[in-house]
Amino acid sequence: MAITSTVAPAGSGPWQRAWQQLRRRASVKTSLVVIALFAIMAVAAPLLSTLGGWSPEAFDRTAVDPYLGGQPIGPLGGISADHWLGVEPVTGRDLFARVVHGAQVSLLIAFTATAIVVVAGTAAGIAAGYFGGRTDAVLSRLMDLTMSFPSLIFMIAMMSVARDVNRIVLMTAVIGLFGWPGIARVVRGQTLSLKHREYVDAARVGGSGPWRILTRDVLPGVAGPVIAYTTLIIPGMIATEAALSYLGVGVRPPTPSWGQMIAESVAFYDTDPLYFVIPSSCLFLTVLAFTLLGDALRDVLDPRGSRT
Q1: 9 CB-contact burial (10 Å; exposed 0-12 / middle 13-18 / buried 19+)
Q2: Would you give per-residue pLDDT tens digits along the chain (308 residues)?
Q3: Which of 25, 66, 57 is nearest to 254 (CA)?
């Protein structure tokens, strides 16, 4: 009689087991599909707008009625074969082209700022936790100072004063500047618990230098919480960019952004509700998908952190 074993295969490591747990969650599958769709939309924005027949800055005066305050001609905000999602009131710019290009701008800023935050926060957290002493004291006080600073007010002030610079680059740098202490604290705590483990002490006794220990022994141990934390801060970055653009200190027109489009649509929410609903739905779905994925990754990769 054949005997079946329920023991996991010998070659299955922690990452394989984590992936198997994630695959069983319907929320993870749905979130990955939504994220993939918006990522493809952002990457293929020029191609998609070309297929739609309109650039995001092109005006179509024939699609709006000048005698009704520039309201779109036709039902549902002017949705037609020429304009798949309708047009903007007054300007007649194609809403589909602006939404896909807005995804490119919003996700580019969010992903780049997240990369800055993760790299800077991970490096600072590992250094503070491993070396301790004066290094830990200086970096910890810098974390406290940055986290106690009114970041949103500073962002608004910086974006208002700096007028002749690339807004996308400036927003990315400013958002990244205030985001690193959170992940640095998480990594510092993980490093403190790892630096006295047996395999780290063995590497130190064996003559390995700090760089080798940090990259070969400590960094893989904090990779799980870092990955989980990364997917949780991405929606915050997207929302921050949208908020700055909504307040008028973010991306400048005519460059499209979801936050900027939502701000402009407020004046037309009662006469053209789809102009407000479409970019708001894109922002909501993207933030929700990353939040659900981040929660699932935290539960699987950092179960102790999910209980705190």
Answers
A1: exposed
A2: 444 444 444 445 666 777 777 778 888 889 999 999 999 999 999 999 889 888 888 898 888 888 887 888 888 888 888 888 989 988 889 999 999 999 998 899 889 999 999 999 999 999 999 998 899 999 999 998 888 878 778 778 877 777 677 788 888 888 888 888 989 998 998 898 888 888 887 878 887 788 888 888 888 888 888 888 888 888 888 888 888 888 877 787 778 888 888 888 888 888 888 889 999 999 999 999 998 888 888 777 765 555 54
A3: 57
What backbone torsions phi and psi does residue 71 show, to the nearest 5 degrees? Answer: -70, 145
- List CB contacts of 234: < 8 A, sequence separation 6 or more: 110, 111, 114, 290, 294
Contact 127, 140 (CB under 8 A): no
Closest among 263, 260, 284, 39 to 168, alpha carbons compared: 260
Tokens of 128: 């503070």
Structure tokens at 257: 């952004």
Q: CB 299: neighbour CB atoms within 10 A?
A: 16
CB atoms near residue 171 (< 10 Å): 27
Burial of 53 (0-12, 13-18, 19+ CB in 10 A): middle
DSSP string, 104-158: HHHHHHHHHHHHHHHHHHHHHHHHHHHH-HHHHHHHHHHHHHHHHS-HHHHHHHH
E strand or H helix at 96: helix 95-131
